[in-house]
Amino acid sequence: MLNIDRYHATMGDASFKDVTRLHGKCLCDAEATFYVTQRKLPFAPCLGHERLVSSLLDSRMDRPRLRFLEQDRGGLALFAKAVEDMSFAGIVRAVRPGTVMFAGQPFADITGPFGLTQAQEIKFEHAFDLPMTTAAIAMQLRMAAGDRWLSDFSLRRNGDVERAVEVATYAFIGGFNDTSNMEAAHRLDIPAVGTSAHYWQQSYVEYMDEPEIEPRTNRPKHFEQVAFERWLDANPQGTTLLLDTIDVHMGAVHAALAATSTEARRRAFKGFRVDSGDQAKLGKWCLEFFEANGLKGMMPVLTGDLDVETVRNIVAEFPEVAGFGVGTKLSGEVRRIAGVIFKECLIDGRPTLKASNTPEKSTLPGRLQVFRGMDARGRYVGDVTGLDDEEIEMPGASSGC
After folding, report:
1. What is the 3-state secondary structure of 309-342?
2. Which of 31, 150, 211, 290 is the most buried (most CB within 10 A)?
């Protein structure tokens, strides 16, 4: 696959030309090391190793793509010849999957001949960015939610099924309990969850014209009450009712009427979901309303464009909330991605760096290592980024790092 930018092909081709020789050898053959880090999230678990391995093993070019390189107007014949029979021959190091790394810390590197090794950049960035972004958001949501239930509701926002499965996977690793994604639940062997959509209630709108009669009052039933009764009848093992199709307060009244109409429906009504508005305020009102009407032990589940800050505020205002469904802000409208980068730090045995007028865009020189300090009880003390062959003494650590 041509999973490269044009500049990788251009640099690769130029590095095979004699005019770009370095220290008496062709630049393409000079050993280079590139390190990988993320610079935009305060912390993130390092995930994506399996994606990287898969892409590195899939390095061969087919004939149509080779011809495309050979016929490039800018002249990429040397690079095309180099990749024609390419098999990956570099050395890759990475921290263990799941290791929490902080912004700017190198978590992987690759060493090999410059000409082909530099062309591996996109593979590293694609491998790690989505997993680390998703898992980091999930971890932050888990910390905000405490021990409350977290469900991945992002399937509709993920663009395609494979990306959706990966988002569900890394959200689960980051601390979510389950997913609405049936394919992901099948592959991961975790619970699949879901309530109903607003259009279940909307589908019973015909009862506005020909309403059912409420036996207890001999009055016409609202169509939303009918819809709730049908849903409870269809899910006698226990279910959650979505209250805000029309108005949350009205939805709660109709849910209570439906649930108390028969003993079986009362048993089936286990929880309620609020998907809009001031979720904490509305959730608290609904819980108190149901308890006042003899429907105790309801599980309030809140959804609707939730992010970390919103979840934290809801927990503070409405600690009785049982759980959250997070979708759009988990994978679609993400405020900040990991921003995985791939930067050269060694060439032909000499350290090199990128200096920048923007400090966060500057890079580190030399073959790097992160030293993590632990005290005698195994508790985290701190990190130091240094050179591979350094010995680090860290205050508070039980021994040298």
Report:
1. HHHHHHHHHCCCCCEEEECHHHHCCCCCCCCEEE
2. 150
Query: Quick one: pLDDT at residue 334?
Result: 82
**Bridge partners (DSSP) listed for residue 189:** none
End-to-end CA distance of the chain: 41
Residues 132-142: tens digit of each pLDDT: 999 999 999 99
Grouping H, G, I as helix, E, B as strand and the rest as coil, residue 269 is: strand
Nearest-10 Cα torsion for 204, 206, 211, 216 = 0
Residue of 135, 118, 115 lying closest to 36 (CA atoms): 118
Enumerate long-range contacts of 72-76, CB under 8 Å, 24 or more apart: 72/9, 74/10, 75/13, 76/9, 76/10, 76/12, 76/13
pLDDT single digits (tens) 10-24 = 988 898 888 888 888
Structural domains of the chain, ranges and CATH numbers in brackets: 6-132+337-387 (3.20.140.10), 134-331 (3.20.20.70)
What is the pLDDT, as a whole number, of residue 86? 64
Half-sphere exposure of residue 239: CA atoms within 13 angstroms, side-chain side: 23
Q: What is the pLDDT of residues 191-203, one digit of tens each?
A: 999 888 999 999 9
- Per DSSP (E only), the strands in 76-228 are 91-94, 100-102, 108-113, 149-152, 178-179, 213-214, 219-220
